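Entry for the shared binder. Reason: the reviewer on the internal report wants the predicted structure included alongside the sequence.
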Amino acid sequence: MVGVELADAGGQARRPLVPQRFDGGAPGGCNRDEMRPAVGRVGDAIDAGRKPGMPLSILSNIAREAPLGSLLVAFLLGVAVARRR
């Protein structure tokens, strides 16, 4: 049933219920060689943020010391963001 087009009552073609077969390419039409530099830069930024005194280091230390408090703060931030939308 892969790639089968369906029609609604009016005869209009709809998207198939089952997605097309994966052709081995990266999502969005990019290939791995194009993605490597971007992935490397993101990884470097995360590593830089984890150094002592940097924001990711501070957040991970807070979460390690007070996991329930951090969970409460994350939940409240999620609720606040969800209500704005």
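Summary line for the report: Strands lie at 6-7, 13-14.
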